[in-house]
TrEMBL record:
TM region positions: 40-60
Species the sequence originates in: Oryza punctata (Red rice)
Keywords (A to Z) from UniProt: Membrane, Transmembrane, Transmembrane helix
Superkingdom of the organism of origin: Eukaryota
Protein name: Late embryogenesis abundant protein LEA-2 subgroup domain-containing protein
Length: 227
């Protein structure tokens, strides 16, 4: 091999290949740092905004307000209160009820804390079965009367009771001497929502639960819900 060729090979071997040339690692670190700084800043701002929103929502949710607005522009006082009791009953023997019964329940609905009722539909139920129902139209709200008792007689005519339901009723009565009844009350507001009242659409529903014995039931506070 010629001497010139030896020089060429040595020069080629000494030359570093292209792919082996490395860049400055500090340039990569600086670019990554810039991208991380932007992403971290956006994430922090988003988290801060969410925290402010949740704090504001919690504040207004827990703030005491004198009235609750509805979609129709009506206002109901949050402190309105209702209770119900059964003064007496007839037409049904809870210990041995027949397959068909015609009971009557003397129901008193009491309004408190400035509440009133224009019209109401009352239903007495046992285990989801309606035993008696009644309507009342005192129109106390329209007349400006507050905190008045509304008394009705909720009657049922030929109400059919299954054998299973009668067995459950008799067992509950024998074991405790009482019966747990539900009393649902639909309230119609003729003053603040005459259109609803005309369409027989209730504004509120009051859900009550009483324990009935041989004498009737004690008064029980009732939760109510705006419709």
């Amino acid at each position: 091999m010629a001497h010139g060729e030896d020089l060429d090979l040595e020069a080629a071997a000494a030359a570093a290949p292209y792919h082996a040339v490395k860049g400055d690692p500090r340039e990569h670190d600086e670019a990554s740092g810039r991208r991380c700084s932007q992403a971290c800043l956006l994430w922090t701002l988003g988290l801060l905004g969410l925290t402010v929103f949740l704090s504001t929502f919690a504040f207004f949710s827990t703030t005491t307000r004198p009235a609750t607005p509805t979609l129709g522009g009506r206002y109901y006082h949050d402190h309105d209160a209702f209770s119900v009791s059964i003064a007496g009953y007839e037409g049904i023997d809870p210990g041995s009820a027949g397959a068909a019964v015609s009971p009557a329940f003397r129901v008193t609905l009491r309004t408190m804390n400035g509440a009133c009722i224009d019209r109401a539909a009352v239903t007495v139920l046992y285990s989801g079965v309606a035993l008696g129902w009644a309507r009342a139209e005192p129109r106390d709200c329209a007349a400006g009367r507050r905190e008045r008792d509304v008394k009705v007689v909720a009657r049922g005519q030929g109400v059919g009771l299954s054998e299973r339901l009668r067995g459950r009723m008799a067992s509950e009565w024998r074991s405790s001497g009482s019966l747990v009844l539900d009393i649902d009350v639909k309230v119609f507001d003729e003053v603040n929502s005459p259109a609803h009242a005309d369409r027989h659409a209730p504004d509120r529903i009051i859900l009550c639960k009483v324990t009935l014995d041989e004498q009737g039931s004690d008064s029980s506070a009732c939760p109510w819900f705006e419709l």
